[in-house]
Design a protein that fits this description.
The chain is an alpha/beta fold. It is 29% helix and 17% strand. Bound molecules: flavin mononucleotide.
């Protein structure tokens, strides 16, 4: 069994093998891991999901690492979250399409010495040296070998290879099974995490077999007790199957022409033939509801890519239900810690079955 993470018992608990790159200890799932599967050395991480879904709130000490998407709330999230999740805070920089200064966000993150900047949708190069100088690691999420090579050249500490099955915005067009080993080869010895379509222990083991050293899950995390997703959203995740998502640019108001994977709701079906409409940024696009961002009530215009949180109200049917093809594997709302525990236990079971000598 290839060692992936250093799982040795210690007061700090499980330490990622990524720590070999100097990452700080993550206070997650440690005792559990060490006790249950001393031979299995990997750790699922929860994917960054929109700031509006408060991923950190879904991150408990036994539930995998938490990433926070920065768009509007960077400062308050960091201050807010640090006591809740010391040592496991990642920060997402989401691309040039968004109406805020990436630089300002990076400044705050570095001043606060977040352990990890998780970059996506853009070139991480300008941030890596500054982050390292501040003692902050950089993980870049990519959707192609070219993206991975750029990240490696930029000097990132780890790469997330995102397959096109993933929920949320999509960096590429290649499936996880084809992409991950290619990225692993392209950036070796930089550690790689697999993302996209992984929602249970089978996916975790498959990712390890592909050469990944970790997984990042998003869709599965929506149906957790702690996820700050509207109950309607959670219910839709439970009901949907793998053939009920679509890669589209439809929810492009505020972030035009950016492919994302979302549920094929009746609203989406209605507008798919006019997909480009979503990216037109029409000022007269109707207001379909409102939500809260950073404590402030904001109107939601049609085609905005804000998956509904419990704060959302109005025409919920017209909102964006980001989800990946792994949604068919999500059948129950559970505490996040339980999801992670099942991933780990299940992976251990599969691995021991696979490695068992066949009886003659
Ligand atoms: C609801 C939702 C929101 C997401 N938002 C972001 C985001 O803001 N930034 C980002 O880098 N990735 C985002 N992602 C994508 C994840 O980083 C990750 O690639 C994906 O969730 C992995 O695939 P899976 O959904 O099949 O687990 C989001 C995913 C979901 C499901």
């Amino acid at each position: 069994m290839p060692g992936v993470y250093d799982c040795a018992e210690s007061p700090a608990g499980l330490r990622w093998r990524l720590q070999e790159c100097g990452l700080p200890p993550l206070p997650t799932a440690s005792a559990l891991w060490s006790r249950l599967f001393p031979e299995l050395h990997t750790l699922p991480a929860c994917a960054p999901v929109n700031a509006s879904l408060h991923p950190l709130r879904a991150g408990t000490h036994d539930s995998g690492s938490g990433w926070v998407a920065t768009p509007f709330l960077c400062d308050s999230f960091i201050h807010d979250s640090t006591p809740v999740y010391p040592g496991a805070l990642g920060v997402l920089l989401s691309g040039p399409h968004l109406p805020f200064s990436i630089e300002a966000i990076v400044d705050v993150c570095l001043e606060e010495r977040v352990p990890v900047l998780l970059t996506f949708w853009g070139d991480p190069t300008p941030y890596v040296a500054r982050a390292h100088a501040a003692g902050v690691k950089v993980i870049d999420q990519v959707g192609s070998v070219q993206g991975a090579q750029r990240a490696a050249q930029a000097g990132v500490d780890a790469v997330v290879a995102q397959g096109v099955e993933a929920g949320g915005h999509l960096a590429g067009e290649v499936g996880t099974v084809a992409l991950v080993p290619r990225v692993v080869d392209a950036v070796a010895p930089i550690p790689v995490a697999a993302a996209g379509g992984i929602a249970d222990a089978r996916g975790l083991v498959a990712a390890l077999a592909l050469g990944a050293q970790a997984i990042m899950i998003g869709t599965r995390r929506i149906a957790t007790t702690e996820a700050y997703a509207h109950s309607v959203y959670k219910q839709k995740i439970l009901e949907a199957n793998e053939d009920q998502t679509v890669r589209t640019t439809l929810f492009g108001f505020g972030w035009p022409n950016a492919p994302h994977r979302t549920l094929r709701t009746p609203f989406v079906e209605r507008w798919l033939p006019e997909e480009q409409r979503g990216s037109e940024q029409r000022p007269d696009e109707p207001t379909i509801g409102e939500t809260k961002i950073g404590g402030q009530t904001v109107p939601l215009q049609r085609f905005m890519g804000f998956p509904p949180t419990p704060d959302a109200s109005g025409d919920l049917d017209s909102m964006d239900y980001l989800a990946g093809q792994g949604v068919g594997l999500v059948n129950e709302i559970k505490p996040a810690a339980e999801v992670v525990r099942e991933l780990i236990e299940g992976a251990g079971h599969i691995l021991s079955t696979l490695t068992k000598e066949p009886e003659l």
